[in-house]
Amino acid sequence: MPERSRQADRRTGLPDGTALAYYKSPIGVIEVAGTERGILSLDFADGAKAHAGPAAPVLAECLKQIDEYFRGWRKVFALALDLRGTDFQEAVWRELLKVPFGKTTTYGSIARALGNGQAMRAVGGANHRNPVSIIVPCHRVVGADGSLTGYGGGLWRKEWLLAHERKHA
Fold first, then answer.
1. Which positions ≥6 away from 67 have C-beta within 8 Å?
2. Which residues contact 27 (CB under 8 A, 6 or more apart)?
3. Candidates 40, 92, 132, 138; catalytic one
4. In CATH, what class is 2-70?
């Protein structure tokens, strides 16, 4: 369920003017940060409690689409993103956006798509630093043998997300 939004303060390390909102998902509370340019981050906020209240305008559509995703209704997100990373990281994140709902890819496949089949470890590093999980679907990247590999939100969440997508594909 969509929850409250608030302005980020200087302690968060987020840019001035960043708004925050929370969503209580089946796999934990999600914190979403956004700027006037778009969604800046989406991450699991373990231990956080969602706050009640209206979402800031920049986040309202994101919360709606996240809710639709968890209900199994949304397969593609249509949101402005405010991704901030190195050129390489942003290239990896753009490749992640091409991985279809309910499908997986490998670090090697992404490296080859970027023109350097040997860059698997660098792709893994960029994948790990993805600030907008679920929307930029880093959970859809698996090992070369199909095994589940690291996920910042925890492997149990990665497994849940992949099963959720297979069920609704």
1. 1, 2, 23
2. 44, 153, 156, 157, 160, 161
3. 138
4. alpha beta
**Catalytic (active site) residue 138:** yes
Taking alpha carbons only, the member of 13, 12, 23 closest to residue 61 is: 23
Residue 168 tokens read as 């609704």
pLDDT digit string (tens) for 99-135?
A: 999 999 999 999 999 999 999 999 999 999 999 999 9
Instruction: Report yes or no: 68 and 55 within 8 Å, Cβ to Cβ.
Output: no
Amino acid letter at 144?
Answer: A
Would you state the pLDDT for residue 15?
A: 78
Beta strands in 69-145 (DSSP E): 105-106, 141-142
Return the CATH number of 87-168, one of 1.20.81.30, 2.60.40.1470, 1.10.10.10, 3.40.50.300: 1.10.10.10
φ and ψ of 149, to 5 deg: -115, 180
Q: What is this structure's pTM?
A: 0.88
